[in-house]
Amino acid sequence: MPELPEVETIAAALSRAVVGEKIVKVEVFSPAMRTPLTPLLYAHLEGRQITSVRRRARYLIIGLDDERCILMHFGMSGVIRLEGAEVPKRKHEHIFLYLSGGMILRFECPRRFSICEVHSDLATTGVPRELESRLGVEPLTPDFSGEYLYSVSRNRKNPVKNFIMDNAIVVGVGNIYATESLFAAGISPLRPAGELTRPEAEKLTTEIKTILKRAIAAGGSTIRDYRHVDGSEGKFAQTLLMYGHAGEPCPRCGSIIECVKLGGRSSCYCPECQK
What we know:
23% of the residues lie in helices and 21% in strands. By secondary structure, it is α+β, with helices and mostly antiparallel strands.
């Protein structure tokens, strides 16, 4: 699933390429998705100008000149590409947004668990109001601090890894980056969140910020499906120390990396380095 660095990379690339363009045609090939795509055909998108492209949590938000937005979530396997009409349609491409400059925004999702919706009730942030009300702080802002993480984790008994992956607490920290951040901070993913000390909370927030910034600089992580809008792969996966390395020696101490299931997700960690 694309996490914060991947969606941030997509948003930055699209912002440079499509802001100012007008949507001239909408084509839906297969409407069955996590939410139906048919409403896009009747949303009167033709003629609307794209005014912004941004990320909130793991959502991509395309702002329009009529104070609406197109909200996208990539699910497990969603990919968005910006290509010309000469490129043949792929099997699992479900939506084409034809742009005035001649390019096409093409939305692909083999597992059909993505979202593409038009919203008009927006918060002052430009994010759909109902969605904004459910989201926590952005990890790369000053609001996400050691003191914040320490205060909201008091009396929480759930594992710290699940806690930092809770979008109501902090958004966009998925399995890959939670795993790497906990290893960098020396904290076991199994620890109850309420047991974090102030220094540990400070260390963990610092590592989350550092790793997310490094991942954005590398264009995100391509594990399976994720691609940039030009079809290229993210490079950060080549530097992962813990995620996907179960049964291998820990790069820090040489102990064998263990893997457990937390919240239905595989969680790799070093039992010696992470306490």
